[in-house]
Amino acid sequence: MAAIDDSNPFILHSFNNLGIALISHPLTGENYNSWKKAMRMTLHGKNKYGFVNGSIPEPALGHSTHALWHHNDSIVSSWLLNSLSKEMQVNILHCSFVKAIWDDLQERFEQRNGSMFVSSFYSKFRSLWESLSELKPSHSCTCGGIKPWCDFEQMDYAMQFLMRLNESFSTIRGQILSMDPFPSVTKVFALVVQEEKQKETSFAAHNHPDNCFKGSFKNRLLCAHCGMLGHTQDRCFKLHGYPPNYKRTGFSSEAKKHSSSSEPPHKVAQQVSVDMSHS
């Protein structure tokens, strides 16, 4: 009996059926990076990753492996479907091949490790688009004449998505609307998610405990040499000398108030005499 060549990517074992789920945790959007890593490892182990990344392209019609390629592609597509959340599944049923599914997910989630708000909103929005598409008459155009209409439809979907975002996304919305050529709807989604991530990062940095006390802590500093607020004796210019090109601007109102009420009389007088000597 001839041995089975496991290096052949077209080989399918009996246990590699349509119903299996390759990983235990389905993709929800927020876990994309870990999901992708686990899925890639599993597909490599099954020698099917070439169908996902395009390194095993579709053979020409009439080629001896054409039907076998489609059979494998359908099997791998079902594996990916079974590894998505139910909400995600309805959003990629329009993809004909497994590479299209993989690319669609990558374009949506690659720039960020998911986003609860935008991902959920986009998934529900796209679900409505898919339901609407089911109600439209199908076409069998093969000449490419329908492509401009399909492109316009995708742009319309992207516009609807952008216009329903709240005002916190007005900047990225304006940037996207001015792009030429106008990006695909999945690219629009990726750009919005990236913007949301930047906002979250900026907010976290702004509200970090170390930053909350910097200003107030500096205002509490009091120099033991000159009695002014905002620095300590070891950083006092009057004691250690002014740096090159330093421009004196006089006391701040807060420093004046403090010096007039708390500085020793001899220091106040000394400061006045120094200022008068330079006038």
TrEMBL record:
Protein name stated in the entry: Retrotransposon Copia-like N-terminal domain-containing protein
Biased composition (Polar residues): 270-279
InterPro entries on file: Copia-like_N (IPR029472)
Lineage of origin: Eukaryota, Viridiplantae, Streptophyta, Embryophyta, Tracheophyta
A Pfam family the protein falls into: Retrotran_gag_3
Transmembrane segments: none
Native source species: Glycine max (Soybean)
Highest taxon listed in the record's lineage: Eukaryota
Residue intervals of the Retrotransposon Copia-like N-terminal domain: 13-60
Annotated region described as Disordered, given as residue ranges: 250-279
